[in-house]
Amino acid sequence: xxxxxxxxxxxxxxxxxxxxxxxxxxxxxxxxxxxxxxxxxxxxxxxxxxxxxxxxxxxxxxxxxxxxxxxxxxxxxxxxxxxxxxxxxxxxxxxxxxxxxxxxxxxxxxxxxxxxxxxxxxxxxxxxxxxxxxxxxxxxxxxxxxxxxxxxxxxxxxxxxxxxxxxxxxxxxxxxxxxxxxxxxxxxxxxxxxxxxxxxxxxxxxxxxxxxxxxxxxxxxxxxxxxxxxxxxxxxxxxxxxxxxxxxxxxxxxxxxxxxxxxxxxxxxxxxxxxxxxxxxxxxxxxxxxxxxxxxxxxxxxxxxxxxxxxxxxxxxxxxxxxxxxxxxxxxxxxxxxxxxxxxxxxxxxxxxxxxxxxxxxxxxxxxxxxxxxxxxxxxxxxxxxxxxxxxxxxxxxxxxxxxxxxxxxxxxxxxxxxxxxxxxxxxxxxxxxx
Length: 435
Known about the structure:
Residues about 425-435 have low confidence and may be disordered. The protein folds into 4 domains: about 1-140, Beta-Lactamase (2-Layer Sandwich); about 145-230, no CATH class; about 235-280; about 285-435, Heat Shock Protein 90 (2-Layer Sandwich). The protein has helices spanning about 1-50, 55-65, 70, 90-100, 135-140, 140-185, 200-235, 235-245, 250-275, 290-305, 325-345, 370-375, 390-400, 425-435; strands spanning about 75-80, 85, 105-110, 110-120, 125-135, 285-290, 310-315, 320, 350-355, 360-365, 400-405, 415-420. It is built from 14 helices and 12 strands.
């Protein structure tokens, strides 16, 4: 932004300087030309005074020689019907024109111009006084004047550019500090603040930004504390459930109930930890898709048996690394399988397939009619929380994956596909194997 302002000031001042410099340069040349012609006109005054008094050629020769132009060989006197006195340079046609009209004339000649001034010797007798003005005299002082103009214009342009840079330094610096603070806020640094500076408008923006950051920080702290408190309140009913489970007779049911309670308590602890220490949440490490699906299917196998649901598991014989933290993948798999148990009648079959880069969950239920609405947070067509598929969708988005919702051709119900990008190492091996 600062460089743009400087370039803009440079362009504007340069155009203004050129707009004044060109006419002034032309005017300087015209002034020098007019001055030289005026000096030539002044040289003729002495000769005009002499020819009005006498026509003696010897006297007139002395008068011509006494003038500075005559001494330099630049003045000539054309007498009627006589040879000219001095060194003539004018064309005969120009001389006749001056004699006929009786008006002064400036005509071009090699290396300059001649000024022709008519003078009356006697009634009916008109002579012409010629003064040669060399080109160097016509351009005397023009070069230095134009150079001075160029230097002055360059100084003015440079000064205006430096001034524009100085004036832009304050607003640009303040804007950069504001952008840096906003970037830090976007990177979860809620302590980022700015020192209000620059013009009044930017200083006001800085103060408003600090106020917004303070309110945002306070709001997030309040929400985190609320999430931690709500999660902590779940410990009481979980403790009661654990006591009831431990009071049951030993067996598979008691073991599964205790394992389920342990899993819920672990999730509650994770929620409290994430709420109190958000920087520790969301490990960037991946996990094994096949291992996670196998573990969760072992959990959902007993409810499927109680509801007489036939289910299949395809694939998963080899590890499938995915760039998703294990806790997030467990939540996503549980959300997909839990939706089958909550939104399809008992006895509805389902199938889980694990491929080299995807997880496919199918069921024989009524299916999902509006896929776009199904992934909207808090929106549900089955009187539920509307968070299940949103959790899955956000996990895929964070992992640079893709969520596809369609209909199963074999089972007739919903078909949900979670596609994950191949890990860099596996991608390299695949490319090398292809040669």
